[in-house]
Design brief:
36% of the residues lie in helices and 24% in strands. The protein has 162 residues and is an alpha+beta fold. It is elongated, with a radius of gyration of 21 Å. The N and C termini lie far apart (50 Å).
Length: 162
């Protein structure tokens, strides 16, 4: 209690903002990435052999390679007071904190989800920030930004920054 008889509230200091997180799983876990690449190649070879068509093997390999694109491409997340800016191959996409209904901390990263209550298929619409290091710093920063919800934008659509 302070001198006015009002209970003291802890004011959390602002974490390190902006925070930059780079996710490049091929570089962060090369053994797992190599085993995934070998599995994709073996699957393509088997598809080619079973279908007796090299084209089918190529299509299977291409489909599996494309479905794991996040592993092979570096993605940079800039977390600021106004939102999260994601940079993929030089293109920037922005998500404001007003668009985030809730977040979930997982063992390998954090999900930013659009709805405040769980809904079917919400993980298809969410944004996943995958990280192995500084997970606690990332969680503290996202918690702070989520609670304060500073936003200079009122859009509810994830938009592409040019």
């Amino acid at each position: 209690m302070n001198s006015a008889g009002v209970p003291k509230t802890e004011t959390s200091s602002s974490p390190h903002l902006p925070l930059r997180v780079t996710c490049w799983m091929a570089r962060q876990s090369p053994v797992l990435s190599a085993s995934i690449a070998v599995t994709i190649a073996v699957t393509g070879t088997i598809a080619s052999w079973v279908s007796e068509s090299p084209l089918m093997g190529f299509l299977a390999t291409a489909a599996l390679g494309l479905s794991t694109w996040r592993r092979w491409v570096p993605i940079t997340f800039d977390i600021t007071r106004t939102g999260v800016e994601r940079t993929i191959l030089g293109k920037k996409f922005r998500c404001t904190w007003q668009q985030v209904g809730r977040y979930e901390v997982r063992d390998n990263g954090i999900w930013l989800l659009p709805e405040s209550q769980p809904t079917p298929g919400e993980f298809f619409c969410g944004l996943f920030i995958e990280t192995d290091s500084d997970r606690e710093l990332l969680a503290d920063t996202i918690d702070y930004c989520f609670r304060t919800r500073h936003s200079s934008e009122s859009s509810f659509v994830i938009q592409r920054v040019r």
